Amino acid sequence: MNLTSGMILGLAYILGLLSTGVAWGGIIVLGLGCGAAIALPKLWKGQFSSRIWIAAGVVGLVASLYFQIRVPQPGVTDISRLLAIENGANQQQVTVSGQVMELPRLNRSGKSQLWLAVSRVDGATQSETLKPDQVRGKLYVTVPLLQATGITPGQEIAIAGVLYRPKPATNPGGFNFQEYLAQDGCFAGLRGKTIELLHPSDRTWGWWMIRQKIIRSQIDWLGSPEGQLVSSMVLGSRVVDLPFDIKDQFTRIGLSHALAASGFQVSLILSVVLALMKRFSTRSQAMAGAAAILIFLGLTGLEPSVLRAVIMGMGLLVGLLMKRNVKPLGGLLLAAIMLLIVNPIWIWDLGFQLSFLATMGLQITAPTLVKWLDWLPNIFAPMVAVPIAAYIWTLPLQLYAFGVLSPYSIPVNVIVTPLISIISIGGVISAFLALIFPIAGSASAWLLHYPTYGLLAIIDLFCNLPGNSIAVGTISAFSTVILYALICLPWLRPKVQPYSWLIGLIAVTLVFMPAWYVKANSLQITLLATLRDPILVIQDHGQTTLVNSGDESTASSTVLPFLQKEGINQLDWAIATHSTATTNTGWSTLLAQTPAKSFYQLASLTAAENATIAQTVQTHQGRYLPFAIGQTMQMRSTSVQLISTEPEIVRFQIGEQNWLWLKDSPKKSQTDLLSNPALNNSQVLWWSGKALKTDVIERLKPEVAIAYSNRVDPETVAQLQSRGTQFYSLGQDGAIRWTPQTRFEKTSESSEKNARSI
User: Fold this and answer.
1) Which listed CATH number (1.20.120.350, 2.60.40.3500, 2.40.50.140, 1.10.10.60) goes with 79-204?
2) Cα R_g (the chain), whole angstroms
3) pTM of the predicted model, to two decimals?
4) Reported confidence tier of residue 580, pLDDT bands at 50, 70, 90
C-alpha cells in the first residue's frame, strides 16, 4: 500500500465517523465507495484501482459501527440507574461516597465543581438488584465554594445533596448539559450541600501538585487576574480558574485559542529545548524534546488539542532522528486517525474540530497568503497570514455552531501576537523556575506584568468597540460543507487562485443571503423555556420584539444564545411586562450586546431601577417609554396591547389569532376577570400554570394553552384537555415555536428533524 492509498483509507475512516450524524450514514459511505470504484478508475486511468475505493467504503462503514460501539452508555450499576426507579424520578436526596478524580474548579455560578468516582450511595430509593455499596459510575458534583476548600484528587469523601438527571438543551442555541456530561461517561449530577472527608490523611501524588505549584508561584507576585492569565496561556484555561469575564472577552474577540494549550506551546517548548541541546547528539535532542512535551502533556491534561500537538511534535522528533522531512499534512492526518481510534467520540468535540481546522489552515493557506503579502517586511507577513489562515478555516464551523463572527478578530490577533509570544515564552520560563525555586518563578512572572496588562487593555478596548461580535445566524450543515469545499478549491486547483476574490464573494453570499431572505419573509413566534420567567420572541418579516429578559443568568445563557442563533443584532421593540426587579436584572446584560430601538417598561419599578434600565437603553440611542394600559404597538402583522396591570394581562394579535398572556392571579380575584372583554376569543392562552377557575377557562375557550412554569396545576390541565385544548408545558416540552406553516412545534422535535436531514 502506497502513501496515497493510506491517506484515502484514513480519510474514509474520518468520513465514516462523521457519517454518524446522518441516519444510515455508514451505508451511505459504503455506497459512495462502491460508486467511486465504478466511476473514478475510468476518469483517472492508472491512478487507483477499484479495490482501494471499495476498501475505503468498507472502512467508513466499520468506522460508523465502531463509533456506535464506543458511545458511552450507563452500566447496570451506574448511579444514574437510581433515577430510573419509581416512575423515572428526576432527583433524589442522597449521600454519595467516592474518590475525587480532579481538583475542584470554580463554575459560573460561584460554586465549586468536581468529578467523583462513586463507590457507595445511601438514602436513595434502592432496587433489589442495586445495593448501596454496589453503585458505581462517574458523577458531576457542584458544592458551595467553602465546602470544597482543601479537597484534592484521590481523597475519599461523602457528599450529601440532591441527585438529578442532567437536562438536554431546552431552547434553540442553548447548552446541552446532558450531552456534555455523556461525552465524559457521566449520566447524573449532584447538587451537593455538605462534604465529609472519610480519610483526611489520604493524599495521592498527581500532576495537579506540580500544576498548582506553578500557578501559585505565578500568581504570588503577579497578582490576579494577570497571574491566572499567564498560567492559562502556559497550561490552558481548562486547568486554571481564570475569571469568566476575561474568558468571555477573549472568546468574543476571537482570541480563545490563546487560552488553549495546544500547538503554539508545544512548538515553543520544542524550539527552546532543541536550541539548548544543540551541542548534543541528535538522539539526545530527540529524547530531551520528547521528555519536555510529555511533561507538558501531563501538566495540561489529556485534551484533544494538546494530544494532537504532542503527536505532531513527536513526529517532528522522529523525523529529526531519521534525518527525514516530515510532511505536515500527513502528520496532521496521522494524529487525527490515532486520536479518533483511541476515542472516536472526539469527532464531535468542537475543540478537537477547531484545533485540526486551524492547523490545516496554517499548513495549507498560510504559505499562499505569505506569498501574497510579500510587499510587507518579512517579519510582518507571517504575523498577518497566520491569523487570517486560521480564521478562514475555522469560521464556517463557528457559524454552524454559534452563528456569530468577530470582525476585529484578525486585526486583534495581528496586534497582540507579539504580546502573546512574550507572555508565553516568559510563562514557560517562569513555570520551569517555579518547579526549581518558587521565588524565582514568582520574580520572573512579575516581569510579565506590563505585557499582560497591555494585552488585557487591548482586549478590553476592542470588546467595547461597536460591532465587536455580529450575529449572522447559524448556517446549515450543507452550507458548512459547501464553504469548506470553496476554501479547499484554490488549494486543490491552483489555477483558480487568481479568482479567490470571486470564491470569497460566493462564500459571503452563501452565508448572508439565505439568512436575510428567511428573516425578511417569515413570521415566527418563540416561547423560551425558563425556570420561572415568561419570555417570548416575535420575528415578524425582519422586525424583532422581545417580551421580558429574565434575570441576568437567563439573559446570558438562554436569551442571548437564541438571538445570536437567529442572527438578531438589534431589537426593534423590547417590552418588560414583569413588575419585579429580580426579573428585570437581565436587561442590562442583554441590551449591552443587543440594543433596542424602543424599550417599553411597565411603570411599577422604583425610580432608581427605571433610571438604570433607561440609561442602558439611551446609551445605545434607544427610546425608553412607559407601557400604559390600552397602549398598542403595531408591527407588520402583529400587535401587542397591555390590557391590565392588576393582574397583568397582555394581548398579542398575530394575524387573525389572539394570544393572551395572563400573570398569576389568585382564584378569589379571578372572578373580576370575567367582565374583561379581552378574554373573549383568545385562541392561545399563555400563563404561569397555576390554578384557573372553571368559569375563566370557559370564558377563554383557548384552543392552545401554554404554561411557562415548571409547576402546573393538574386540575386546570385536566379541565383544559377535557374540552380539547392542546396543552404544552415549557418546563417539560422545552421551547415552543409557532409559524403559520408548521403551527405549534417543540423546538426539540424540530432540532431532531434538522439533525436527521443533514
Assistant:
1) 2.40.50.140
2) 29
3) 0.85
4) low
